[in-house]
Amino acid sequence: MNNSQRSGFGAPKPSAASAPQGSPLAQIPKVLLLLMLCATTVAGFLWLPAAEGFRNPALARIVVFHVPCSIVASIASGVTMWYAIAYLATRRPMHDVKSRVSAELSLLFWILTTVTGAIFAKAQWGTYWNWDIKQGAIILLLMIYAAYFALRSAITDERKQAVIGAAYGIFATLCVPFLTYILPNSTPDTLHPKGTITTKDGLSPEYKLVLWVGVLGLTLVYVWVWRQHVALDAIRSRLAARRTPPPASGFVIVETGQ
Question: Name one GO biological process term (predicted).
Fold first, then answer.
């Protein structure tokens, strides 16, 4: 058994149908993704009409960025739990890597959700932070995810770190729907509107179009960054396995005096 097999990271199998990473053909999806994000940004600030009924109708357009960040953060949280369960079932190190990387991106998108939400709050309610129930819930969620990484960094044993991280990752993901949907919608005492993207009385068709294109674009960004980080981590693990000295043969040489 070679070192890469012992570490749990097999070498990637090249596909004849796939284009080399440096070829122009391989860059087409990235260019299309960049164009989609640019078009969404331009449409959000220049094409969409000002959101009437807000204190700052022009700034309220940020809702088409705020909501996609929240949706993609939830998707990343779901992927975290999926691979956490897969790791607990199989003990394959690669599943732990995929779960951890997705948790990192989930935290990033939850931070973006918080920042864009604060800007929206300024446009709608006059202050960046109102301690609305949903704002309090998102702070608690950020603390839960920050604790996930603090817990992993405090454990030196890799297998124990992966097991505990997987269990905590499942817990963190289960907190997402409760803190972002169930709890805020369980009380009328909230500033946040309800049914913004699911009802006819919510956003206009133009806003919904830009919003869902933004969801698609950010989801593709998440998938691309996630794949790149997972591949990089696999390379690091293979290099570390090659630097690990082979185990002793089991023979002991005993020197005897004459």
Answer: cytochrome complex assembly
